[in-house]
Amino acid sequence: IDSKQFEKILKYIRSGVENGATLETGGERLGSKGFYIQPTVFSNVQDGMLIAKEEIFGPVQSIFKFK
What we know:
The chain has 67 residues and is α+β, with helices and mostly antiparallel strands.
């Protein structure tokens, strides 16, 4: 990925945290060279959150509860 996509993915991760999703793992830059991001997993994601509505082209996974 390039720097633009890298920043976009980090924006989604910040949005998830700010909107109340639980960051289970990851969410940080991986290494100091290149544009690598740790595999990231969110739980307690709600339908109205940006990370639930947008397709994130990066290592970000959201877990939803359902009944």
